[in-house]
Design brief:
It contains 34 helices and 13 strands. By secondary structure, it is α/β, with parallel strands linked by helices. Helix 14 packs antiparallel against helix 15. The chain is elongated and about 135 Å long.
Length: about 750
């Protein structure tokens, strides 16, 4: 039994222990409680006192947070790229200090870096549960959500970060990037400008502002941004890369290549830089180097869909069609709704006769179905003036420039602008050159679509009150066919730039003519065919003083055949037929002229195909691309132009005829294979159309054997074609307007 004195002693000790604890003298309190328990191990008051002290110590530990040295150690591991070590250390700290928001924020950043985005989001959310006004955690959560594709949610967190911390430059920058992805370019620009107002030497914000200005077509302004970014941070690989992209758009290809190479010097594993360098080298005709860099891009980043697409373009340029098709397919396996790769694949099919019209139609319709699924609803209420006799016509193209489409358009637009039509140009890329300047005056408005999402572009067109919207691209470069699936205009037509069906149900008509789209071709198109009375296109005569020569065979002593088409059109079937021709005419020569022939290896390969059959290599002349003046003058050195097949010439055939050089073409069973037929029928040269390969060969031999008759044909050919429907812009524009009004009346 406890004695009174001892009881009094214990009580006094417990009272003193409580007093020390209240005053924060935890060591002293701990010692007093321990002394009681040494004497009385079952004393409940002492036990409760010790438990309270232990809890207090834990809480104090949690409230004070981890030692700074341990936090710095985790950050150091993260900075050095030792992610697994950093993650392990951060987990330990979180366990020891579970109420520290900083640790959750750090852990989130590590998870995000290793690609575990869901885990990163949970960490940021834990940080914000503990500390709701944690601006940095809101910003980082925004970043993680953006990576997950949850753009709207990420915007909200950036905005919350900025509500807490208005001068948070990084959050302004990140918000700008997300708004850019959402297609809100103007708002995006304001964010970058705000970031730079706070932090003028923020290289990343200069770079991002430059990218956004590029998408808006303000290329010169974007260049200044990249220059500023690089002045601040000379080894900034991304800024060099983006600078290169702008210079590529401006056709300053050599300088673009320099910047891509600098990007790779600072960041050797920069797959996108390798890929776009390959594209620039393709334009420069450096095809071997092009393939090397594209393959490098994919070695670094095998799932780079854009890289596979670009490699497909490279193989197409080299005439390796099967490998091109495989590359496009790989791009689509990674990114099934990749519009550019889908269009490139469809375009590729036109180079080969291996695909029948049913297959081509099916593939094109599949394209339309893919993008129709993204359409929330078609427009039904149109804002055009119902009583107006003036049709408002929108033209959508990326080729309002020095391009075959531009050459076909120029004289026609001049005439159309004088008729009862209002023309609006919707340009899909920022390139603006001398031809752009010449034709801009024929439009009431010149509106860029680049930088706009398909939905936003469709809204813009719809709000303009367009009666008829015309696609000028089909599945060629810079097309914006997905816009048409939204049906922004009551009547939609495809014309001029492409030579097959688009596959889009919302495009009502394709403009053809009796020769390229005879009645039996109706089933090849998802669109209805409206046949213009003579020709589906009208060419603008070159504004160049180029003389017509007599047949060079009269002085050379031998006939020179020529083909100035894209070399991809010169497939094995074509080469085999031309070999037969050169064999049948042992003294004849063949002049090939194409940008692909800038490459020595391409020249070697094409010459080998002929020499393998015993043809003297001196008879095969390969020339690089040149200025248009020199290109046209080269027609003076050939006697007869040979049209490739099944992808026959368009602009090249027109130019050949204008230069007085007749063309032999082989008629086919598709629009693209009958372009030559349409041109020659309108030119009054129906006898130069072959129905099969044997006749093609016979005509080439017969026409080149009668040089006197050939000279007569050449001497009057320019005058003949200039007076034909092919160059009669006044009559063509009347037929064109009549077509539009007839279609309008049929639909309305």
């Amino acid at each position: 039994m406890t004695t009174p004195s001892k009881t009094l002693n214990v009580n006094a000790t417990l009272t003193r222990a409580k007093s020390h604890a209240k005053q924060g003298q935890l060591k002293e309190a701990w010692q007093l409680y321990q002394s009681v328990l040494e004497a009385f191990p079952q004393n409940q008051q002492a036990k409760k006192g010790l438990n309270a002290l232990q809890k207090s110590q834990v809480n104090k530990k949690n409230q004070s947070g981890p030692p700074q040295a341990q936090v710095d150690a985790v950050i150091s591991l993260y900075s050095r790229g030792q992610m697994q070590e950093a993650l392990s250390a951060s987990k330990t700290l979180v366990k020891d200090y579970p109420n520290t928001p900083l640790l959750y924020n750090i852990s989130g950043a590590i998870y995000q870096e290793v690609g575990q985005l869901d885990a990163a989001v949970k960490c940021y959310e834990m940080a914000l549960a503990i500390k709701p006004n944690y601006a940095e955690a809101h910003n980082n959560l925004g970043n993680a959500l953006k990576e997950l594709g949850e753009l709207e949610a990420s915007v909200k967190h950036y905005e919350q970060a900025l509500a807490i911390k208005p001068n948070y430059a990084e959050a302004h920058n990140n918000l700008g990037n997300t708004l850019k992805e959402l297609g809100e370019l103007e708002a995006s620009i304001k964010c970058f400008e705000q970031a730079l107002a706070i932090k003028p030497n923020y290289a990343e914000a200069h770079n991002n502002l430059g990218n956004t200005l590029k998408e808006l077509g303000e290329l010169e302004a974007s260049i200044k941004c990249f220059e500023q970014a690089l002045a601040i941070k000379p080894n900034y690989a991304e800024a060099h890369y983006n600078f290169g992209n702008v210079l590529k758009e401006l056709r300053q290809l050599e300088v673009a290549v320099e910047h891509y190479l600098q990007a790779l010097e600072f960041k050797p594993d920069f797959a996108e830089a390798h890929s776009n360098l390959g594209v620039a080298l393709k334009e420069l005709g450096q095809l071997d180097a092009m393939v090397h860099h594209l393959e490098q891009a994919l070695a670094i980043k095998p799932n780079l869909a854009e890289g596979h697409n670009n490699l497909g373009n490279a193989f197409k340029e080299l005439g390796q069609l099967e490998m091109a098709a495989e590359s496009y397919q790989q791009a689509l396996a990674i990114k099934p709704n990749y519009a550019e790769a889908l269009s490139n694949r469809l375009f590729l099919f036109n180079y080969s006769s291996s695909y029948d019209s049913d297959f081509l139609l099916k593939e094109a319709i599949n394209f339309g179905e893919i993008f129709r699924k993204k359409v929330t609803t078609h427009f039904t209420n149109f804002h055009y003036p119902h009583q107006s006799n003036k049709l408002k016509v929108g033209l959508v193209s990326g080729d309002f420039k020095e391009h075959p489409v531009g050459c076909f358009l120029e004289s026609v637009l001049s005439e159309l602008s004088q008729q009862n039509l209002e023309l609006i140009a919707y340009t899909t890329q920022p390139k603006f050159d001398k031809l752009s300047a010449r034709i801009q005056i024929f439009f009431s408005e010149w509106k860029p679509l680049f930088g706009l999402s398909d939905e936003n572009a469709a809204n813009l067109i719809h709000n303009d009150g367009i009666h008829i919207l015309i696609d000028l691209s089909g599945h060629t470069a810079h097309n914006r066919l997905p816009i048409f699936t939204w049906k922004p205009a009551p009547v939609q037509i495809t014309w001029l730039g492409y030579f097959a069906t688009t596959g889009i149900d919302e495009i009502d008509y394709i403009l053809g003519d009796p020769y390229v789209t005879p009645i039996q071709f109706d089933s090849q198109f998802s669109e209805k065919i409206y046949r213009l009375p003579n020709t589906r296109w009208c060419f603008t005569p070159p504004n160049i003083d180029a003389k017509i020569s007599s047949p060079p065979a009269l002085t050379n002593g031998y006939v020179t055949f020529g083909c100035f088409n894209n070399l991809t059109k010169v497939n094995e079937q074509v080469i085999n037929l031309w070999i037969k021709l050169l064999t049948a005419m042992p003294n004849s020569h063949l002049l090939l002229k194409s940008k692909q022939l800038n490459s020595f290896s391409v020249q070697s390969k094409i010459i080998k195909k002929f020499t393998a059959t015993g043809i003297d290599p001196r008879r095969i002349l390969c020339e690089q691309s040149e200025s248009r003046e020199k290109y046209l003058a080269a027609y003076q050195r050939i006697d007869i132009t040979l049209d490739p097949f099944p992808f026959t010439g368009g602009a090249t055939t027109m130019e050949s005829l204008w230069m007085g050089v007749p063309v032999i073409t082989l008629q086919g069973e598709t629009l693209v294979s009958r372009q030559g037929v349409g041109i020659l029928m309108n030119a009054g040269l129906s006898n130069w159309i072959a129905t099969d390969k044997a006749e093609y060969l016979t005509k080439a031999i017969d026409f080149s054997s009668d040089l006197n008759q050939l000279a007569i044909t050449r001497s009057g050919l320019r005058e003949q074609v200039l007076s034909s429907p092919l160059f009669d812009a006044k009559q063509f524009s009347k037929d064109f307007e009549h077509a539009l009004r007839t279609i309008w009346q049929q639909i309305n």
